[in-house]
Amino acid sequence: MSTPVAKTAVLKSINPYNGEVLKTFDEMSPAEVDSAIAKADEAFRQWRETTFEHRAGILRRAAELLRERREELATIMTLEMGKKIEDARPEIDLCATIFDYYADNGERILAPKEYDTAEGKGTLVNQPLGIVYGIQPWNFPFYQPSRVAAPQLMAGNVVLTKHASNVPQCAKAFDQLLKDAGVPEGVHTNLQLSARNAGSIIDDDRVVGVAFTGSNKGGAAVAEQAGRNVKKTVMELGGVDPFIVLEDADMDATIERFMIGKLLCTGQICISAKRIILVETIADEFLDRATKLFAVLKPGDPLDEATGYGPVCTEKAAIQLEEQINKSVDAGAKILVGGKRNGAFIEPTIMTDIPKGSPADREELFGPVAIIHIARDEEDAIRIANDSDFGLGGSVHTNDLERGRRVAERIESGTCFVNQISWTYASMPMGGVKKSGYGRELADLGIMEFVNQKLISVFDKDHTTL
After folding, report:
1. Staple partner for 335: which of 219, 339, 444, 453, CB 3.0–4.6 Å?
2. pTM of this prediction?
3. Are 87 and 265 in contact (CB under 8 A)?
4. Which of 396, 42, 58, 100 is nearest to 241 (CA)?
5. Pick the catalytic residue: 27, 80, 91, 236?
6. What is the CATH T-level fold of the domain 242-418, as seen in this structure?
């Protein structure tokens, strides 16, 4: 039934701020993985029969525990992947909101729907499918598994979570929190695996679907493997979100949003403001102000509230980002501020004069790097925004709300905000188009991704067939 995993490794929890190895974890053996899947399969038979009320009670308790352990979990996150503590705490708050949202709304969203048509009557029921496999990234180590686990557990599915290899402490803490909330053994399982062994679970016949968040390369491999097994997938992949500033934008408010949208989590967010598209009449003012704000930011310990910016997740990631910056400069791009690396730290950077085909033009620069494009007018700004292989999120900044909505509708993306950074909410669906993925997470659409929408139609015994 299952495919054996390869040779096991040791997973290291490393503080990117100072390179200290915090803890090590042994990767699960093939036998342990098979046993975990078997327990999940068995647990599903019972969990699917529980009531919505029972599941909602456990989800509410998980939300309570998230709030109670807010500081503890935020600190683990900051130590393990470098997120500033002031950014980590709100992530835990968001997780709690997600669990509460599905506890409060899951039963209503999944309620049967009646059909009364000329051909007959029917009822559409939403039934759980089984084991959902979540492959999660490191950048939001509690939010990412929450947005899979909360809706799927409420729907009656069970979840296997394979978290990123560099956040094993976060993965363990999340799994323990669910167990403490009352989630039974096997209903949620933390698979302690390296990336090279993550794919073996997809081939297992007992696993019915995969929710993946991560790189395009990784997503393509997972989707291909799942496709060969005819399994449903949801993909949230890379993004190069446009941050469009029109000439009538409130500059004070827009600069404030830009600083948050670009530097939150040190810019390591799929929906962060990556391509800053400025209508030329306001470009000089925006760049002058943004450059000065970037220039005074100081690096430091992400646990220190006074730190201006922290490290990226690993020194390897910083080196990769540095290479993208340097290759873009070699191709003709100009750096207004920043651009230097020190260990896992990358200076907050603003780049202009972006050459076509350079990394800054075609790739996702996952870090504190703002890519500037100057547009002649609104129409040109829309053209630049859509000149991308990606389509995850975006934002438009203008004092004319109707104009903002009109522009937002023309942006080729899964979400687009007006006078707000591209963001995520428990009650609103999120997902991408183009190479940013497919499917939706959160809100009503998220809980519907892995259910069997079954039509039941009952006819009188004396009806005429067809």
Report:
1. 339
2. 0.97
3. yes
4. 396
5. 236
6. Aldehyde Dehydrogenase; Chain A, domain 2 (3.40.309)
